[in-house]
Write a structure and sequence with these properties.
single chain, 134 residues, alpha+beta, two-stranded parallel ribbon, 5 helices, 2 strands, 12% strand, globular
Length: 134
């Protein structure tokens, strides 16, 4: 009710980014403003609520991380194209994006199994498919 978002922590995001940059540097990968991480994110621009939400996400990530991460909002001509980009893809390898924000799934009952089932292998688990693990 006070507008506080317990998940939004810019300082921790910067700390984690600096850790990732140092670990990647050990592997010979440079991450900076000239060589940022690129994240492709499908965006149904014709749906105002999602378009606004995605632009806010883009602005927050890019400003907090100082341009070391760029969120590329990939325009979907309508909500159907957006759903078929990720939610309705049959296999993870069909998904051509780095991050996606619609799963259409919620827990069915009050047991941990309802969450664990989403990570079943061989395309049986919904989240493994959307994450592109299989």
């Amino acid at each position: 009710s006070d507008g506080f978002d317990g998940w939004y922590n810019p300082e921790e995001a910067v700390n984690e980014m600096e850790l990732a940059i140092s670990e990647l540097a050990e592997e010979g990968v440079t991450i900076d403003e000239e060589h940022p991480i690129q994240i492709d994110f499908p965006n149904p621009s014709t749906v105002e609520v999602f378009n606004n939400m995605h632009h806010t996400l883009k602005q927050s990530v890019e400003s907090v991380l100082g341009g070391k991460v760029v969120v590329n909002l990939i325009d979907c001509k309508d909500v159907d194209e957006w759903y078929y980009t990720g939610y309705y893809a049959n296999y993870g390898y069909e998904a051509n994006y780095d991050a996606y924000d619609v799963s259409g799934w919620g827990p069915d009952y009050g047991d941990p199994q309802t969450y664990l089932d989403t990570y079943l292998p061989d395309y049986a688990g919904y989240m493994t498919k959307n994450l592109g693990i299989y």
